[in-house]
Q: What sequence folds into this?
């Protein structure tokens, strides 16, 4: 699922690498296979897209993370194995906006305001009752 959370300006080289990654991912998806990030990395190494260096793996991890946030790469691919989930960090303001939007779609603000007013009335009654003791 492609979802764009942030705008990101990629270099031409990065966009090219994202396109190659997308093609590799699609090749495997057509066989109902999902790659881990490490498997994607080794596919790029084998195809001579990148050298086999730890720095390149870290760069790929960041590139895929940024590409997901920008809506270029599906969130359901390039996992960290089958026993764990990969969590890409969303910027706090983006995460807050997503949560606010989800809550706004399910929360009855009128009901919440009525409850708040009732709580305030109840607090005043309790204060008054305690003041008489």
A:
């Amino acid at each position: 699922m492609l979802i764009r959370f942030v705008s990101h300006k990629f270099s031409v080289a990065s966009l090219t690498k994202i396109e190659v990654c997308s093609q590799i991912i699609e090749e495997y998806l057509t066989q109902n296979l999902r790659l881990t990030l490490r498997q994607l990395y080794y596919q790029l190494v084998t195809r001579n897209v990148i050298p086999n260096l730890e720095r390149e793996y870290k760069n790929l991890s960041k590139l895929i993370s940024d590409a997901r946030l920008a809506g270029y790469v599906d969130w359901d691919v390039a996992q960290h194995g089958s026993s764990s989930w990969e969590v890409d960090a969303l910027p706090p303001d983006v995460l807050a906006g997503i949560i606010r939007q989800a809550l706004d779609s399910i929360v009855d603000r009128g009901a919440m305001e009525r409850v708040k007013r009732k709580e305030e009335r109840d607090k005043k009654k309790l204060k008054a009752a305690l003041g008489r003791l």
